[in-house]
């Protein structure tokens, strides 16, 4: 039987142990999302040890979902922003455990301090285990932009990803997870295949692919927390989902009232 649903994990920067030679942190990184290399390695090991069906985003969208007699949820791994740690730290661990992943990149930051270069992105995209998607150009929240500015963000980021990867199909991770019907419509019109958000939840077969929910993996998550995050019946899963849904609702209300917010999430 196929998995009843998928859990899409959302990572950001992976942080090294200590300060290795050549390590440059990114000013874009939020420390809350900085999962240590040792924790990340353990999390990928857990996915394999516990027998979760680990799929690529392409697999799920194309319907290439293997049978699982235990009916465990499928797991899809994604990364946002485009940190150099994706290339230097995450990719080797993912390769070791044969875990596919999609890396969503804010194209305006490519090559800046702590972010991946064009060469690193191109090499990632050539690895059959990985894919590269767009995360906007400037990381501005698409819901706060004018229609023209939003379209420009979408078109420019998609164009650069296509050039770097040689791949026509491009998926979008909305910066800050901010999405609306209008932004979704513009993303579809611009040619994106799918849109991923930061809305917590599960992805069921037959669900639309222009509002894909994800679960953030945080620095504060222990290995036990990570295991519970993979269980929608657990308190960790439900609490995380409730808190993040409430925060998103407050942000959307603030935007509707014209209240400014931090340009980072």
UniProtKB/TrEMBL annotation:
Cellular compartments per GO CC: extracellular region
Gene3D superfamilies tied to this protein: Glycoside hydrolase/deacetylase
Keyword Chloroplast: no
Single GO BP term: carbohydrate metabolic process
Keywords in alphabetical order: Signal
Annotated compartments: Secreted
Molecular function terms from GO: hydrolase activity, acting on carbon-nitrogen (but not peptide) bonds
Domain of life: Bacteria
One Pfam family named in its UniProt record: Polysacc_deac_1
NodB homology domain boundaries: 73-265
Statement: the UniProt record of this protein carries the keyword Transmembrane: no
Classification via InterPro entries: Glyco_hydro/deAcase_b/a-brl, NODB_dom, Polysacch_Deacetylase
Stated name of the protein: NodB homology domain-containing protein
Lineage, broadest ranks: Bacteria, Pseudomonadati, Nitrospirota, Nitrospiria, Nitrospirales
